[in-house]
Design goal:
Rossmann fold; 352 residues; 39% helix; alpha/beta; 2 domains; globular; five-stranded parallel sheet
Length: 352
């Protein structure tokens, strides 16, 4: 039985994700009409349009490509014991869904270019209808044409579970607002995600006497992302270790180090998405142009994970080769552990 979305009732991200999973295209279109003011009856491709700074986009893409190409891990083949050879092989994901926040061409570059370098077969982009023309035009410069003018939780659900129009993907990457990140966490039970990259944040670590205008610039640039962005200033006084402890406790998305003492902490900081060293390394340089990825952990996630990289679009397969002689050497170990765990059929496999 068909149903329609009522604009009167309160809805949650869970409601949207469930509805899209159950009703596909119809639900995507209805939520887009309700939340984004569209008029379409099914998901629509974004139409490339608008003047773009083509040289800047291609220059950024070149830097991003160079940095991520250098990250390619090597396959391993090791004979761990006579007759037992293990291989760890890296391969690209088949299909990746990319979420691009409203009009953020730079986030398109940071997600699509590494996916292309990795060799992903299919890259699908979802972005809110407003600003989608510029995102689609930039995607065309990268040779990508599957860009959907669909935003919010309905976009995440469509990429995760698939609809008649938008085929499901194997992993979803990209930053987003609260609804997008909540949706990513919900669907992560069924499809892989990169990380819940939420509201932007910066930790500015400054020596005494550092130009206050530089500190203000970094704070203002970060707050430009939206009212939920966060900025912290750590003053480096006599106790350098105390300053380091504050930085580690914040576990910020971006850490800017200003002044010789602050800069001396660069190699000791573990909890940060990206560290920017010195007065000539503003955070926006990394957002747009250095080639490093700006999809970074927020909300304390930097304690346990790093930002997007080439490996985000790769996975490993382990191949195990065992000869007759190798299995004979392994048999006593397998049998002993199988006996310990009460697995007689496991034990029996080594006698063949």
């Amino acid at each position: 039985m068909s149903k329609t979305v009522s604009p009167d009732r309160r809805v949650s991200v869970e409601d949207i994700v469930r509805d899209v999973r159950e009703r596909g295209d119809a639900a995507v279109a209805e939520w887009s009409r309700l939340l984004d003011g569209t008029s379409a009856t099914r998901p629509e491709r974004a139409v490339p349009y608008g003047d773009l700074p083509v040289a800047a986009i291609l220059a950024a893409a070149t830097s991003i490509r160079a940095w991520h190409e250098a990250q390619r891990p090597r396959d391993l083949v090791v004979e761990v014991s006579p007759g037992v050879t293990l291989e760890r092989r890296w391969s690209a994901l088949r299909a990746v869904g990319v979420y691009v926040p409203r009009g953020l061409v730079s986030s398109l570059l940071m997600t699509v270019v590494p996916a292309q370098v990795a060799g992903v077969d299919r890259i699908v982009v979802c972005t809110p209808p407003e600003g989608s023309a510029a995102v689609a035009a930039a995607a065309a410069l990268l040779g990508l044409d599957e860009v959907w003018a669909v935003g919010g939780a309905q976009a995440i659900a469509a990429m995760a579970y698939g609809t008649d129009s938008i085929a499901a993907v194997d992993k979803i990457v990209g930053p987003g607002g609260g609804a997008v990140n909540s949706a990513k966490l919900l669907v992560s039970r069924d499809v892989a995600i990169d990380l819940p990259a939420g509201p932007s944040e910066v930790v500015v670590v400054a020596d005494e006497g550092v130009d206050e205008a530089l500190i203000a610039q970094e704070v203002a640039a970060q707050m430009e992302h939206g009212p939920d962005s966060r900025a912290f200033v750590v003053r480096v006084g006599d106790d350098l270790e105390a300053a380091l402890a504050q930085v580690e406790d914040h576990a910020g998305e971006h850490v800017a180090l200003l002044g010789p003492r602050a800069e001396s902490l660069a190699d000791r900081i573990r909890n940060a998405g990206a560290v920017f060293v010195g007065p000539y390394a503003p955070v926006p340089a990394g957002d747009y142009a250095t080639g490093a990825n700006h999809v970074l952990p927020t909300g304390g996630w930097a304690r346990s994970t790093g930002g997007l990289g080439l490996e985000s679009f790769l996975k490993t397969v382990t191949v195990q080769r065992v000869t007759r002689e190798g299995l004979a050497r392994l048999a006593p170990t397998v049998e002993a552990l199988a006996d310990l765990e009460g697995m007689p059929y496991h034990k029996a496999t080594v006698r063949r």
